[in-house]
From TrEMBL:
Presence of keyword Acetylation: yes
Protein's organism: Glareola pratincola
Descriptive protein name: Zinc finger CCHC domain-containing protein 17
Record-annotated CCHC-type domain positions: 125-138
UniProt entry tagged with the keyword Zinc-finger: yes
GO biological process, one term: RNA stabilization
Subunit relationships: Interacts with PNN. Associates with the 60S ribosomal subunit.
Region of interest (Disordered), ranges: 155-181
Domain S1 motif as annotated: residue spans: 8-80
Length: 181
């Protein structure tokens, strides 16, 4: 097997190919190539790796990962932790690499989990008399604010019609009281 650089070793390599997701770098002294993903090309956001490097360019890289996948050794490289002018290590303790790993691990995919809504329709609370929940879920505090659901349009129209009827009967009662006097 060919002599590969040690993990976290810095070396100057030549850009072999540029893709939409990064650039493959020829590792000196062996036939292997490593990938500099576009997130590891610069500390700034890189949308198109072809704007950063071209085929044949010499770049300083740091070997940040080795992974066996499908009986192939995949090498991960980083340009952003190496000064491109001098080849000096900008992250000698690998702190930024650890932070990048933590960011990746913190993301969790919740798409497989189901969300269940336990809505209750057309119920009346025995505790407060409001619609839409049960007494065990009631949130009215003694002497506190009482909350209820907003009535739908049909209910508002029925309530408004009932209110108009009440006004007319109260006006009729007032006029009959005046006559009696």
């Amino acid at each position: 097997m060919e002599a590969l650089p040690e993990l976290y070793a810095i070396f100057q390599g030549e850009v072999a190919t540029v893709t939409e997701y990064g650039a493959f770098i020829k590792i000196p002294g062996c036939r292997k190539q490593g990938l500099v993903h576009k997130t590891h090309m610069s500390s700034c956001r890189v949308d198109k790796p072809s704007e950063i490097v071209d085929v044949g360019d010499k770049v300083w890289v740091k070997l940040i990962g080795k992974e066996m996948k499908d009986d192939k050794l995949k090498l991960s490289l980083s340009m952003k932790v190496v000064n491109q002018g001098t080849g000096k290590d900008l992250d000698p303790n690998n702190v930024s690499l650890d932070q990048d790993e933590r960011k990746k691990r913190m993301f969790r995919d919740y798409t497989g989990q189901k969300i269940t809504l336990e809505a209750v329709l057309n119920t009346v609370c025995k505790k407060c008399g409001c619609k839409g929940h049960f007494a065990k879920e009631c949130f009215v505090q003694p002497g506190g604010t009482k909350y209820s659901l907003i009535p739908e349009e049909e209910e508002e129209e029925v309530a408004a019609a009932g209110h108009e009827r009440d006004k007319k009967t109260s006006l009729a009662d007032d006029s009959s009281k005046k006559r009696k006097k």
